[in-house]
Amino acid sequence: MARILITGGAGYIGSHALKALGEKGYTILVYDNLSKGHRDAVMHGDLVVGDLGDKELLDRTIQEFQPEAVMHFASFIEVGESVREPLKYYRNNVVNTINLLETLIKHQVDNFIFSSSAAVYGNPEKIPITEQAPIRPINPYGRAKAIVEAVLYDLSMASQFRSVSLRYFNAAGADPSGQLGERHSPESHLIPLILKTAKGERDYLKIYGSDYPTPDGTCIRDYIHVEDLVNAHLLALEYLLAGGKSDIFNCGYGHGYSVREVIEEAKKVTQVEISIQEADRRAGDPPLLVADSSKLKQKLTWNPKYDDLNYIIRTAWDWEKTRE
């Protein structure tokens, strides 16, 4: 099996991808500075604790491991924080990615899978969003992802380097076996925040904005189970290793749920009443993001298995209940 380097493999989505790759028999090396990830989430392969800003360690690691492909998950992900601290996001999500790409080119590693985001679309003109929609990010997080996508396109034009960018909509849920789940610090994602409120770890859940142009006034998002998202990565990897050309794919289910709808579904799963507090809108939040993933289904034969909000929340709740 191929040798795969996973940056950010100790984080939420990276660790789920690592588990799936390990179970399939790939030889894996994780490169992670553990600023957001967790050592115990690295369930397969070896771990190099290092930062993508450390060019010497990065160069040595890639030279010694000689990967055939790289999955790049190592980025900061909080939209609100990116608005407050844009340089932090451009340095890590753009500059450090360029450090990685330069090193890969040097060592002739030509296959790259990039964690992109629906944030590149900003406020879309049409729903659901296709890959041909205009790229108009409205926050530094989205702009950083768009910059890297442009770099990857130019690299593919200039060299043998090939990449697949997967534009995530809202990854959610947890490993159905209960071994892995979502544990950001601080936590900013809706479903784990709801569940922490249900557990009593938080007094109430804040709803950021109740005056959006949506049926109930709260933001609508396309929630995709992390296992279906991981499956898209495995298909992208097989596609590149078989000689596929650079491409971009949306990753979502094609329908969305509002914040209030997610809260109501979580009440059914947890059987707990959840206190809420309405707050002002967060800077950089578009009202509506829903994917058209037909290209992913057609070109990479992606067939999602977990398109069920109740199931997404149940797997997350099962994981959350194991956390002290």
Features of the shown structure:
324 residues; Rossmann fold; alpha/beta; UDP-galactose 4-epimerase, domain 1; three-stranded mixed β-sheet; 2 domains; 14 strands
Describe it.
The protein is of the alpha/beta class and 324 residues long. It folds into two domains: 3-172 and 224-251, Rossmann fold; 190-221 and 254-320, UDP-galactose 4-epimerase, domain 1 (Alpha-Beta Complex). The chain is 39% helix and 18% strand. The strands form four sheets. It has a seven-stranded parallel beta sheet with strand order 3-2-1-4-5-6-11, sandwiched between helices. Helix 1 links the parallel strand 1 and strand 2. Helix 8 packs across helix 10. The longest helix has 21 residues, at 86-106. It is globular.
CATH topology of the largest domain: Rossmann fold
> Which range best describes the helical content: under 10%, 10-25%, 25-40%, 40-55%, 55-70% or over 70%?
25-40%
Average pLDDT? 97
Tell me the number of structural domains: 2
Examine the secondary-structure arrangement and name the CATH architecture of the largest domain.
3-Layer(aba) Sandwich
Radius of gyration: 19 Å
Write the topology of this structure:
Elements (H helix, E strand, L loop, with lengths): L2 E5 L4 H13 L2 E6 L13 E4 L5 H11 L3 E4 L6 H6 L1 H21 L4 E7 L22 H19 L3 E7 L1 E3 L17 H10 L5 E4 L11 E2 L1 E3 H16 L5 E5 L5 E2 H12 L5 E4 L8 E2 L4 H6 L9 H12 L4
